[in-house]
Amino acid sequence: MKSQFIKALLASSILMGCSTATDTIEGQSAANMVSKSPSVQAVQESQALLLAKWQGPFEGVPAFDQVTLAGLVPAMEQAMADKLAEVELIANNNEAATFENTIVAMEKTGAELSRLFTYYGIWRANKSTPEFRALQSEIAPKLSAFYSKINQNEQLFKRISAVYQSDAVKAMTPANQRLVLLTYNSFSRNGATLNAADKKRYADINLRLSQLQTRFGNNILADEEGYVLYLDKSQLSGLPESIVNVAAAAADERGHEGEYAITNTRSSMDPFLTYSTERELRKTVWNTYYSRGDNGDQYDNNAIIAEILQLRHERVGLLGYKNYASWRLEDRMAKSPENAIALMESVWPAAIARVDEEVADMLAIGKREDGIEQVQAWDYRFYAEKVRKDKYNLDSDEVKQYLQLNNLREAMFYVAGRLFNFNFTEITDGSVPVFHQDVRVWEVKDKTSGEHIGLWYLDPFARKGKRSGAWATTYRSHTTFQGKKNVLSSNNSNFSKGVAGQPTLISWSDAETYFHEFGHALHFLASKVEYPTLNSGVRDYTEFQSQLLERWLTTDEVINNYLVHYKTGEAMPKSLIAKIKAAATFNQGFKTTEYLASALVDMKFHTVDPTGIDADKFERETLGALKMPKQIVMRHRSPQFGHIFSSEGYASSYYGYMWAEVLTSDAAEAFAEAPGGFYDKEVANKLVEHLFSVRNAVDPSEAYRAFRGRDAKVEALMRDRGFPVKTK
To answer: Which residue range forms the structural domain that includes residue 135?
Structure first.
């Protein structure tokens, strides 16, 4: 998969601008990265503010406009030390271990650290700098050692085990029983049961992994920031006005006035490949994007992948598991890698068969119009768009004219009001600080009672230092065990900001992603759990709630009221709506295959013995064995697969999107079959009660059965994707 073409291209200064601002990370201390060391007083003031209780309205809000990096390292050290001291008090309590003095006491620890992680997360994901990356590399191993001290605290684990094994658990509420189980598992599955020598090795492995995973993520960001394609007017053929305007704005922002910038991000790459008639430029953009982390330079991630896999395999071996995936999936809905693989392989043949059909349709047009002999990977989006127009008379750019970012946000608020009884009111008086001028904040209330639910922060636009993609997070989760704490939730996207004074227009796919991430926010905001741990997610389940919310984008209420033309203000015509719905399963071969390829390679990586593994070769051979169509590449190639290698969040769990989509398709049919359709009050109430408000206080399988009355069926997924459904 590694591209010699891109290596040669990046060595040239003809088309590509290369920044060296991120040439830091390993081998340099944080002090070397700061051009002027802050004074002792500045460090102390920064440290104090980073650890301080949040002030202001809404039970206190983060001081995003005041905090600085100066005191980050000492603040982190202090917060970790304070939590360790709290843990020691619990571990050395002379009283017999109980739910209150052990499990609940643990839930109360680390308030300072939780607040600090909010700021740390913003610097890591939303406004990264070379200075922060150096500090991050210094902090990551300290955090790893800190967590190892807690997980390997023998006295603490004895007390947790005593509660877990006690008869008192049987008399607890189901939610409290689950809290005990989750707490016990978090220790037993992370080395608490090992002997002294193995505990040390376990901690050493985690320390090294923290360093490698940090480097992996920073390397991707370096390649995304470092390479920008600058075009002149003669190279814009085929690009719609909205994309040209965005490219011009991106070039202006980078000091290239009069040129047009295609940045090395999906939000810039995808529309360029869809519309540009310059085939060689499409090839350039495609190669640049899919070679991130794979250019044989200081930011190459292949060796890092190999070491990460080896260390993960060794670590779970200490716990007695045959491979990393078996350990990871044990407490997920799938339970085993075999179950996850079986689901994916049941869909894979239909997906690649559909790709053959799609390629045949594209090649027919390509031969007729452009004389091409075969469809290449950088052609797929371009000719797929032509087929869309030919088969359905549907022009994606025409659809885009009705997808204004602000209107879509209001549509999401409308859906939240109908399903969750939430009302969103923007806070414009400056009482809630933000970390960037693009960020806006809304208060969320219950529409009937006026009860304050929380705040919703929105950071919608791409910029230098912000990681790519879209994500949701919380700065504070809902709990009640120490008095009610309301939610501070956020959504983060990377839409390309348009020309000042004009609305930002996005693609249909981006609109679906916008709704998807808002689904995560609603999952946070709807929480009714008592303890922090019960807000945690089960990876192959938490994507379900967000995937489900995408379905409301195509409801008549949203289309008729919020999808209006950005120039005329006229509602989307019924003829265009009909085309969109008719084309709902169009290009599912591409979408399903690029995703499944990533999920299957992830699972294969984590179910083999990785000794001596060559990541690049393994990816190629695995895809070859799957008979991966040559016209499609993995959605996330291994050297840029941050989901699984910049942290362990999705490691051997990327399949979870499809596992969750089985639930999504099945649940969507419950709404479709209801008298009130997707706004049916009875089904909506069951949705909120059983699938959103309980978070992880109920086993996901039990929660879904409470909603649907049965387990989900894979046939609904196949119907949604337009694939053949096997009859028994």
So the answer is: 42-193
Question: Which residue type occupies 70?
Answer: A
Please spell the DSSP secondary structure of 469-527, one letter per residue.
S-EEEEEE--B-BTB-B-EEEEEEEEEPP-STTSPPB--HHHHHHHHHHHHHHHHHHT-
CB 151 within 8 A of CB 190: yes
pTM over 0.85, yes/no: yes
Q: Which residues contact 528 (CB under 8 A, 6 or more apart)?
A: 478, 693, 694
d(CA 227, CA 224): 6
Residues 289 and 5: beta-carbon distance below 8 Å: no
3-state secondary structure 476-489: ECCECECECECEEE
- Please list the residues that pair with 487 across neighbouring strands: 454
Looking at the DSSP bridge assignments, the partners of residue 263 are 228
644 with 575, same domain: the answer is: no
Position 23 in a domain: no
Q: Which residues are bridge partners to 473 per DSSP? A: 490
Q: Position of tokens 């859906």?
A: 415
Q: 591-625, pLDDT tens digit by residue? A: 999 999 999 999 999 999 999 999 999 999 999 99
How many domains does the structure of the chain reveal? 3
Burial classification of residue 254, based on how many CB atoms lie within 10 Å of its CB (0-12 exposed, 13-18 middle, 19 or more buried):
middle
d(Cα 546, Cα 618) in Å, to the nearest integer?
32
User: Across the strands, what pairs with 479?
Assistant: 485
Q: Which residue in 454, 446, 456 sits closest to 422, CA to CA?
A: 446
Which one-letter amino acid corresponds to residue 683?
V
Q: Which secondary structure element, helix H or strand E, spans residue 262, and what is its range?
A: strand 260-263
Radius of gyration, alpha carbons of the chain: 26
Residues 33 and 133: their CA atoms lie apart, in Å, by 9
Contact in structure between 502 and 494 (CB atoms under 8 Å): no
Same domain, 705 and 603: yes
Q: Are residues 616 and 701 in the same domain?
A: yes
> For residue 19, what pLDDT is reported?
33
Query: DSSP letter string over 26-67?
Result: TT--HHHH-SSPPPHHHHHHHHHHHHSPPBSSTT-B--TTT-
